[in-house]
């Protein structure tokens, strides 16, 4: 059977340790391409599993699979963000919106792909309304660096009410997923082009958070 992830043929028993990894990769790509409501049996087939119940066997449900795909990449992303935070604090740099957004977003440009991912940003764009993506408990230890960055962003945003700060942070995450997915779809002619697009994504997200609130005309 041919895997949608690598194009190779697999015949892996549903109980094989490799089956879980194949389903994670196939689930990420299939959901990215066809949306979160894609039939689980189609994900199993894309992963080269003969048993159409393979997703249920390993993950319990669609929600379990989506959460597991996120959990696959989260440790490495948080490790990179923690390292960037440490460097930032050692240097004594101020908590600007640009610096904080850079630490939050830049790991997304390379960490998932170093782990064998091909469609992670597009997967996040498709599943952004899922609680595992839109509303994780940032007080859990595994989200430690992300929580610190979000809290500091909230404090750093100038001239906005608390409600507007929360609104813009939510909007920023939506825009971020769309921009990262578009970045993932692109083919770059050079590393300079790639870096330029990365820098522009950061700049656009910073602008979304720092643009002053418009004055409200009153009669």
Task: Output the keywords.
single chain; 219 residues; mainly alpha; 2 domains; 11 helices; elongated; disordered N terminus
General description of the model:
With 219 residues, the protein is mainly alpha-helical. It has two domains: 1-60, no CATH class; 71-210. Helices cover 65% and strands 0% of the residues. The chain is built from eleven helices and no strands. It has helices at residues 17-34, 40-46, 54-59, 62-91, 97-105, 111-114, 120-126, 131-134, 144-156, 162-185, 191-210. The radius of gyration is 19 Å and the shape is elongated. The model is unreliable at 1-15 (pLDDT under 50).
Number of E strands: 0
Q: Major β-sheet, in short?
A: none
Number of discrete helical segments: 11
Give the helix/strand class. Answer: mainly alpha
The SSE order reads: HHHHHHHHHHH
* First and last CA, distance: 69 Å
Q: What value does the average pLDDT take?
A: 86
Q: Estimate nothing, just give the exact number of structural domains.
A: 2
Radius of gyration: 19 Å
The parts where pLDDT drops under 50 for at least 5 residues are 1-15
Overall 3D form: elongated
β-strand amount: under 5%
> Helicity range of the residues?
55-70%
Topology record:
Blueprint lengths: L16 H18 L5 H7 L7 H6 L2 H30 L5 H9 L5 H4 L5 H7 L4 H4 L9 H13 L5 H24 L5 H20 L9
Helix pairs in contact: 1-2, 1-4, 1-7, 4-9, 5-9, 5-11, 7-10, 10-11
Brief synopsis:
The protein has 219 residues and is mainly α.
């Amino acid at each position: 059977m041919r895997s949608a992830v690598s194009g190779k043929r697999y015949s892996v028993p549903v109980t094989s340790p490799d089956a879980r990894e194949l389903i994670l990769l196939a689930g990420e790509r299939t959901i990215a391409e066809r949306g979160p409501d894609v039939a689980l049996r189609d994900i199993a087939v894309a992963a080269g599993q003969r048993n159409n119940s393979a997703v249920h066997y390993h993950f319990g449900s669609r929600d379990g699979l989506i959460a597991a795909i996120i959990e696959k990449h989260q440790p490495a992303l948080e490790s990179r963000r923690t390292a960037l935070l440490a460097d930032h604090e050692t240097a004594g740099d101020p908590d600007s919106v640009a610096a904080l957004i850079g630490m939050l977003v830049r790991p997304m440009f390379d960490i998932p792909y170093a782990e064998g991912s091909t469609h992670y940003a597009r997967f996040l764009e498709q599943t952004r309304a899922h609680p595992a993506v839109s509303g994780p408990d940032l007080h859990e230890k595994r989200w430690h660096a992300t929580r610190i960055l979000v809290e500091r962003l909230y404090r750093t945003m100038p001239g906005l009410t608390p409600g507007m700060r929360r609104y813009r942070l939510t909007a920023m995450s939506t825009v971020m997923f769309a921009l990262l997915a578009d970045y993932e779809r692109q083919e770059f002619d050079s590393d300079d082009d790639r870096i330029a697009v990365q820098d522009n994504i950061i700049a656009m997200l910073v602008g979304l958070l720092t643009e002053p609130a418009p004055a409200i005309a009153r009669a």
